[in-house]
Amino acid sequence: MARIFNFSAGPSALPEEVLKQAQSEMLDWHGSGMSVMEMSHRGKHFSQIAAELEADLRALMQIPQNYQVLFLQGGASAQFSFVPQNLLGDKTKACYIKTGAWSEKAIQDAKPYGDVIVSASSESSNFTTIPDVTHWAVDNDAAYLHYTSNETIHGVEFNEIPNIQGLPLVCDMSSNILSRPMDVSKFGLIYAGSQKNMGAAGVTVVIVREDLLGRCLKTVPPVFNYAEQAEHQSMLNTPTTYSWYLMGLVLKWIAAQGGVEVIEQRNIAKARKLYAFIDASTLYRNSVETTYRSRMNVPFSLLDETLNKEFVTASEAAGLHALKGHRLLGGMRASIYNAMPESGIDALIAFMQEFERTH
Ligand SMILES: Cc1ncc(COP(=O)(O)O)c(C=O)c1O
Fold first, then answer.
1. CATH code of the domain in which 324 resides
2. What's the whole-number mean pLDDT along residues 290-312?
């Protein structure tokens, strides 16, 4: 069996150790005589998996005690609608920062529930930068301020947590959670889908400060009401048990690597290498302002776009999977989340170098 290097934006590569462990436990989890898929979510085995999952996430992210950790369904996309419905309360406005396709989606989906104020936007630069935080038009009457810490499609990443006074900070961290340390105490709410840095698709992590609970609209189904789910350990309905289990394995893998700090150093080294190669080449280009280039998603174009198809075909044949860019941007994109080893970056660079030489 030959495993490829998978550059998919999500669902994406998982650590090989995790897959092997899941394989070895597939038929019999820890002497239970069952697969995790076959267990009752209320039984003692799965209760242990669930308790460790939450404890491990709390430890890795140093989540303070006054935050609830929820494991929900519906993806980050559902949270685009349920964040405003849970947090607006008696306020009518919410502030959003527009930095690319995903924050744009969050803005659109929040509009039915209140007045959405776009406090800053980098649209005029085609989303190649992050607007300077000192110029954000923040409305202090708003319920919260929302931003997207890493724009998966545009390849733009905040390199620090915006320093906002007064409003709870809400963050879609779907594509860079656990890739770098984040001080959770600076946030009112963090949400993230599992299928990039945390495991298989199927779980959405919501980390919410307790004082923000209890403002949910009565029209919201209980499974998307944060306070209700917090009260029921995210088990108001049957959870996606196998995805919880896989997330647990990924978290234990991160801890075994040395934690988020060690992972961050690896991510810095991987991204630096790839961007340095792209910048030095005469065929490839990344147009994101250097300071805000994503460590997770590296979009790049070929200066001769007629070569795109050949590049994709040849890279797939070379065992480099899913480099074709998102349809919004065209070109290419290499998603290099935590599970992408440095050898994957080296293989990608070697391929790109040879392609450039022969074209
Ligand atoms: C930053 C960001 N937010 C939200 C989403 C949507 O996630 P889901 O498809 O799980 O709803 C994605 C998916 O790629 C994403 O990258």
1. 3.90.1150.10
2. 97
